[in-house]
């Protein structure tokens, strides 16, 4: 089966369903041709996922397809862009129809939800590698960047922090959990993250800086702080408040370990953003309107570096051991 | 060495040299932000190259960097687009400074020639895989597509046909060649193709259909014929006329074998295009102005399929053996 057949069979749909008005030419020519709306800038991001490194090779293919696109859409969300389309470059050792059907199904379902059609790409034989490049648009000069945080700004996260890392601990066998529903929820948080596109777009003109959480709150926040030339103070209890269920399940851990764990864990794919205190009511209203939890977890300060305190106001060391070193 | 260090060390340059006015935000945020010119459409293409499949692992890294970008720029050329920028996703098993310096040097030199800056991407540990996605712009509705060929149109190629495949035969040891200068030229044609960007842009409004030659003239022409619903008649002698030096070196081959070889060989990365006979003078003038050889090799006919004739008007069978079956 040739590469063109592969693309056509699994990655296009009857009558190119899912193509939006912005797609002038889709799959099948030398280039895809997109028509952004007048006056809009183009936002572009690209992430490469390698089997055995970024995902388990036996990951449910529908979830893998979802996640490969979701992590890219999350970058569009972080800059406040509206999706236009994406390209997929896919290397596979073997072509298995059932796997491809589920993989493309998971990917195209998420694409459809966000009006982000697949417009081109490449497939080849090789070690399993998934590279998506995603394109979005946003009004000129309105991109949310990492460099806009100012001392006095509040620091926020969307969704829950730490759940994806807990899901990874379950899949790795670092942790066992009797509560099947919670276990399923945590694994889904790892394998099927929700890109916060609507939230990112609504935060244009409100947030002073934003990025998405992929490598863990602590490390990712460092990028905002470095780009903005500021420091941050984090309320550890507010971070834990994003996921009461997780911390109840890990109640045997001291609070400081819970906080350090939440700040270290990756794969959250939530938005981390800053905004002036005057925006608190507007941000709460946006979260409520979108039914997306938004939690204020600290504030931006002059200087540099991150300080974290627990419920007693005591500083939290950030190098506390995680599952693999703790019972 | 972390992925961010890797990117910063080899793939950015002091003061982001090479960024054009179209780059509002380059490497270092969640997304790159590009500003296409008003009224322009966006052209996008993506190619994935896997070590051992698309290139020899011991390929000169500067040429590999050049080629990885060139094959993508060639797709922009084929639709008549002007480059805006590209993203690079790179998986490497090991990080070797000397290799990366040469690889990025070859890639960024070509990028600079075509004002096509690197604006983002991803690097990761994994089996060596190079995925570039390239973005260009062109006036609305003026993209050169595969679907516009009409019976009576002339069929053209730029540059030389078959030389890249001959270079591959030399590298594979299928063929030996005493002429060192010719050998070097043929290998360079394989390893460092020249994307025909200026030609593609000048052909907007003149060519009726176009694509770039990657898999071999015969197979690639099939895509134009299928998309346009037409057939083609090829003058084999005109194809050979694109590279007198090669066919002189292969003078022991019967002409029909030479013709079949030229039509089967891949990696030419030249433009294949069609145009009405009324455009002959305009096309000759463009080729002369750009110093790019442009050869008329046949014509589009009603019906379907490809017929090829030799200098005696005899049909050429297209399944004649290549180097590996011929002394």
What does this molecule look like?
The structure is a homodimer of 327-residue chains. Chain A has 327 residues and is α+β, with helices and mostly antiparallel strands. The first copy, chain A, folds into 2 domains: 3-139, PurM-like, N-terminal domain (60s Ribosomal Protein L30, Chain: A, 2-Layer Sandwich); 146-317, Phosphoribosyl-aminoimidazole Synthetase, Chain A, domain 2 (Alpha-Beta Complex). Chain A has helices at 3-11, 61-79, 97-113, 163-172, 180-191, 197-202, 217-228, 236-240, 244-249, 255-264, 280-290, and strands at 23-25, 32-34, 40-50, 82-92, 118-125, 129-139, 154-158, 209-212, 231-235, 271-275, 294-301, 305-309. Chains A and B meet through strand 2, strand 3, helix 2, strand 4 and strand 5 of A and strand 2, strand 3, helix 2, strand 4 and strand 5 of B. Chains A, B: Its EC number is 2.7.4.16. Chains A, B: This is Thiamine-monophosphate kinase. Chains A, B: Belongs to the thiamine-monophosphate kinase family.
Could you name the key traits of this structure?
12 strands, Phosphoribosyl-aminoimidazole Synthetase, Chain A, domain 2, alpha+beta, 24% strand, 327 residues, four-stranded mixed beta sheet, six-stranded mixed beta sheet, homodimer, 60s Ribosomal Protein L30, Chain: A
Mean pLDDT of chain A: 91
State the secondary-structure class of chain A: alpha+beta
**Tally of distinct domains of chain A:** 2
CA radius of gyration of chain A: 20 Å
């Amino acid at each position: 089966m040739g590469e063109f057949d592969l693309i056509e069979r699994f990655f296009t749909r009857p009558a190119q369903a899912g193509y939006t008005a912005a797609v002038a030419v889709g799959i099948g020519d030398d280039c895809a041709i997109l028509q952004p709306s007048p006056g809009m800038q183009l936002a572009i991001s690209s992430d490469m996922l390698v089997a055995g490194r970024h995902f388990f090779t036996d990951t449910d293919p529908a979830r893998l397809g979802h996640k490969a696109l979701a992590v890219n859409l999350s970058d569009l969300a972080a800059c406040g862009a509206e999706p236009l389309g994406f390209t997929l470059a896919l290397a596979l050792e073997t072509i298995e129809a059932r796997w491809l059907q589920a993989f493309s199904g998971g990917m195209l379902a998420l694409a459809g939800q966000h009006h982000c059609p697949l417009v081109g790409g490449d497939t080849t034989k090789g070690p399993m590698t998934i590279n998506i490049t995603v394109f979005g648009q946003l009004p000129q000069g309105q991109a949310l960047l990492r460099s806009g945080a100012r001392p006095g700004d509040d620091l926020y996260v969307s969704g829950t922090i730490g759940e994806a890392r807990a899901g990874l601990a379950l899949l790795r066998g670092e942790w066992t959990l009797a509560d099947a529903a919670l276990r399923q929820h945590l694994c889904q948080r790892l394998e099927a993250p929700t890109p916060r596109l609507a939230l990112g777009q609504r935060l244009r003109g409100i947030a002073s800086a934003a990025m998405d959480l992929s490598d863990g709150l602590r490390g990712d926040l460092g990028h905002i702080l470095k780009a903005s030339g500021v420091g941050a103070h984090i309320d550890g209890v507010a971070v834990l408040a994003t996921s009461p269920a997780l911390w109840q399940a890990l109640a045997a851990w001291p609070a400081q370990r819970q906080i350090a764990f939440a700040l270290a864990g990756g794969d959250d794919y939530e938005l981390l953003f800053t905004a002036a205190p005057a925006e608190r009511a507007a941000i709460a209203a946006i979260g409520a309107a979108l039914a997306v939890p938004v939690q204020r977890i600290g504030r931006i300060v002059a200087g540099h570096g991150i300080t974290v305190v627990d419920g007693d106001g005591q500083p939290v060391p950030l190098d506390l051991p995680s599952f693999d070193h703790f019972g």
